[in-house]
Amino acid sequence: MKNGNHDVVVVGAGMAGHCAALEAARMGASVVLLEKMPAYGGSTAMCGGAFAFAGTRVQKEQGIADTPELLEQDLLACGHHVNDPQVVHAYAEHQHDAYRWLESLGLDFDNVTLNGGQSMPRLHSLDPKHMLRVLHQALLDAGGEFRANAGARRLLTSGEDSERRVIGVELTNGEQVMAQGGVIISTGGFSRSRDLVARFAPHLADAKPMGGEGNTGDGLRMAWALGADLVDMGFTKGTFGAPAGPPLAGKEKTAPHLVHTMYKGGIVVNTKGDRFVNESLSYKLIGEECLKQPGRIGVQVFDQRIMDQSAPFPTVDDYSSALEAGLIQRADSLDELAGLLGLPAQALKATVERYNAAAEGRGGDEMGRDCLTAGYGTVPTLSVAPFYGIACTTGLNSTYCGLRTDAGARVLDVFGQAIAGLYATGEVMGGLHGASYLSGSSLAKGCIFGRLAAQDACRRTGQTPAAAA
Ligand SMILES: Cc1cc2nc3c(=O)[nH]c(=O)nc-3n(C[C@H](O)[C@H](O)[C@H](O)COP(=O)(O)OP(=O)(O)OC[C@H]3O[C@@H](n4cnc5c(N)ncnc54)[C@H](O)[C@@H]3O)c2cc1C
Question: Is the CB of residue 21 less than 8 Å from the CB of residue 31?
Answer without folding.
Answer: yes
